[in-house]
Amino acid sequence: MTKARKLRELMARPGPIVIIGAHNGLSAKIGEEAGFDGLWASGFEISASYAVPDANILTMAENLQAAKMMNNTSLPVVADCDNGYGNAVNVVRCVEEYEAAGIAAICMEDNIFPKRCSFYAGVKRELADVEEHALKVRAAKATQKDRDFVVIARTEALIAGWGMEEALRRGRAYADAGADMVLIHSKSKDPDEVLSFARAWDRPNTPLVCVPTIYRTTSVDTLHKAGFKLIIFANHAIRSSIKAMTETLQTLKREMYTGSVDDKVVPLERVYQLVGVDKMKQEESSFLPSGSPGVTAVILAAGQSQGLLPLTEELPKPMLDLKGKSILERQIDVLNACGVKDVAVVRGYKKEAIKVPNARFYDNDEYATTNEVFSLFRASKELSGPFLFLYGDIVFERGHLEKLLKSPADISIVIDRAYAEGQRPKDARGVPDLVALKDAQEAGYRFVGAEAPHRVARVGRAIPAGEAHGEFVGMAMFTAKGARLLTDCYHQLQETRAKGGFHEAESLRSASFTDLLQELIDRGADVQAIDVYKGWLEIDTFEDYRRAWALIKE
């Protein structure tokens, strides 16, 4: 259905049609969201958005472009075309261009060219000859190709002070020339003029239009009962935006920090919603070559490291320098190299020191009395779709991440098989997180099949070393389904496990990530292990830190 057909259907239904003035695509979107029947491509608003008077200073092309921007909604657009941008020949071009652009209707007033805004005081105002404007109406109707296209004729006789009889004479002439609707304009502060016009109107097949900008206390219901079909709230979008921008910018200039206007601005997410960022993401996913795995990385960087004191007295471990870059920056470099651009970091200890660009931050201010699971769910907003899980104190080769991203499993973890083969470096870290697999191949054999995932049977620090097939590296990936399994499990545990131990932890609040993994396994979830062989390092001690400096080349 064309927008013109939508407008015709509105004209045929009982009740008033109420449309809102707009000046660009954004104001049009907000007008649609507010529930109006249509949009008025206001010459006043469009001129104001260019910071010029409403006096035919803008060209038809500039006004048409603004009206086109408003066609990004489902609403019909009624375009304020001033006086048709010239004589009847100009009107022909005007109708051709606006109709081709999908605009539902145009409105032409009988001011001479160049026009002046109806409400400008003290400016010269002349009206075109009534027959000349009637011929413009005829030209418009003869030019349109779509029978549903609407032509509204507007008379400024009351604005110019020419009286009611002249206003009626002009309105009748324009209706007789074929206008689909007639707009009577007034700058009186009460509605008596337009109500009198409506009482005297004797062209019942030509509905009336009004713009109650000045007689602002008159309701739509009153105007409709008087005989007006289309009511235009013509310029309130631009006027309200000017007020809001003035207050916001003056506050910013006075206070000189952006947080001073938090109560005056919408969140960025509101802008994203209005401009269609979600739709863009869907289109990118459907039609663009995949340059990104489409996952979010969630990095846990909340804990306080005792093993690296005094280095971590003033600096959290993930921000320790490794040859010019912090551990966290090195992680994000590898993520970005693999196409993972969405990164969320959970901070805690010395959180103000964790600063990296292009990352979202979540805070666990209870880091001293909680553990990894609690930290992970501080970033619960990031766990609704596919996501990567990373400890914030590991450095790893790009190939490890690439293997993890290729895993088809709903829940995958990376394990280092070097541990089972006695190749893991000895240090003072204590008992590592070990992994026991189901149907694992014999240690020491390297073959193509070793690249395939294997189902995890157990994970944690209590697994006897002789039964372990590898060490958990601190990297995991969850598909959307896997993320749902994880979050559902956690929320159920919150409701049912108020007190008591939880796997290897004293409570759910103090649970490690591996405790929650084991709970998923016990509930029947298929957790798959992705094998790697060395090529990573957890930095938890001075020996780890020294080794990292020695191994990292740049």
Largest sheet: 8 strands, parallel, barrel
Unreliable runs: 425-429, 444-450
Alpha-carbon distance between the termini?
A: 62 Å
Number of helical regions: 19
Number of strands: 21
What level of helicity do the residues show?
25-40%
Shape: elongated
Rg is 35 Å
Widest sheet, order of strands:
1-2-3-4-5-6-7-8
Class by alpha and beta content: alpha/beta
Average pLDDT confidence is 91
The fraction of residues in strands falls at 15-25%
What can you see in these coordinates?
This protein has 554 residues and is α/β, with parallel strands linked by helices. It is 36% helix and 18% strand. It has 19 helices and 21 strands. It has helices at 3-12, 25-34, 43-49, 60-70, 88-100, 130-143, 157-160, 164-176, 192-200, 220-226, 236-255, 268-275, 277-287, 327-337, 372-376, 398-405, 480-496, 513-522, 542-551; strands at residues 17-22, 38-41, 77-80, 105-109, 150-155, 181-184, 208-210, 228-233, 296-301, 321-322, 325-326, 342-347, 360-363, 387-391, 394-396, 411-416, 434-437, 454-460, 470-478, 527-532, 536-538. The strands form four sheets. The chain has an eight-stranded parallel β-barrel with strand order 1-2-3-4-5-6-7-8, surrounded by ten helices. Strand 6 (181-184), helix 9 and strand 7 form a beta-alpha-beta unit. Helix 2 crosses helix 4, helix 6 packs parallel to helix 8 and helix 17 (480-496) packs across helix 18. The longest helix is centred in the middle third of the chain and has 20 residues, at 236-255. The protein is elongated. This is Isocitrate lyase/phosphoenolpyruvate mutase family protein.
